[in-house]
Amino acid sequence: GNSVTQMEGPVTLSEEAFLTINCTYTATGYPSLFWYVQYPGEGLQLLLKATKADDKGSNKGFEATYRKETTSFHLEKGSVQVSDSAVYFCALSGRGGGADGLTFGKGTHLIIQP
Amino acid sequence: KAGVTQTPRYLIKTRGQQVTLSCSPISGHRSVSWYQQTPGQGLQFLFEYFSETQRNKGNFPGRFSGRQFSNSRSEMNVSTLELGDSALYLCASSFGQGGNTIYFGEGSWLTVV
């Protein structure tokens, strides 16, 4: 079956530091890949996505590239801010004719200190 | 346009009771899915509905059920509540199935005492 593995943290960084959150996946076929962010007490917000190999998703300074050869979708940001503190979830959605639920990683708690 | 709307946002129930949660998808979206989020198990897929039919189901007991109406609104029901059912229940909608971007609501926080 499908699975997603990501570092759980917490990951603590200083403001303006470079961020990388690793995500690797196992899936059959050609899944779509997503990063979602969850702020305290809220639901999930889509951060970025990529639907095929070598696609780069980007939003709000965050980027992730769909690497089929390494089955990875690592999240990066060049300079983090305190407001980026949240839990980040890597997820995949299988393709195909049937309905597929999202498979999530355990989430990475990111803490940015001023 | 309005996002995914879930009601109620917070509720407290007693063991053995049942609960119904409601979800209104984004306008035009026909697929609605439900997820349970707990600190221990993380985010787990419950089920998905498309055009009033359940298309996929996660690994949850039969106490968890759902339905979708002709206007794509969805409800999920949990009967005979257990303490372990305390969780954030997230509803998500998408335009279609398989590979479409899924948008989440803010969730319903259920506490079972």
Tags for this entry?
heterodimer, A: 114 residues, mainly beta, six-stranded mixed beta sheet, four-stranded antiparallel beta sheet, 12 strands, 0% helix, B: 113 residues, seven-stranded mixed beta sheet
Architecture blueprint of SSEs:
The complex is a heterodimer of chains A (114) and B (113).
Chain A: E1 3-6, E2 11-14, E3 19-21, E4 23-26, E5 32-38, E6 44-50, E7 56-59, E8 62-65, E9 75-77, E10 86-93, E11 102-104, E12 108-113
Chain B: E1 5-7, E2 10-13, E3 19-24, E4 31-38, E5 42-50, E6 53-57, E7 64-68, E8 74-78, E9 87-94, E10 103-104, E11 108-112
Parallel strand pairs in B: 2-11
Antiparallel strand pairs in B: 1-3, 3-8, 4-5, 4-9, 5-6, 7-8, 9-10, 9-11
What does it look like?
The complex is a heterodimer of chains A (114) and B (113). Chain A has 114 residues and is mainly beta. Chain A has no helices and 12 strands. In chain A, strands 2, 5, 6, 10, 11 and 12 form a 6-stranded mixed beta sheet that branches. Chain A has a 4-stranded antiparallel beta sheet with strand order 3-9-8-7, with no helix packed on it. In chain A, strands 1-4 form a two-stranded antiparallel sheet. The radius of gyration of chain B is 13 Å and the shape is globular. In chain B, strand 4 (31-38) and strand 5 form a beta hairpin. Chain B has 113 residues and is mainly beta. Chains A and B meet through strand 5, strand 6 and strand 11 of A and strand 4, strand 5, strand 9 and strand 10 of B.
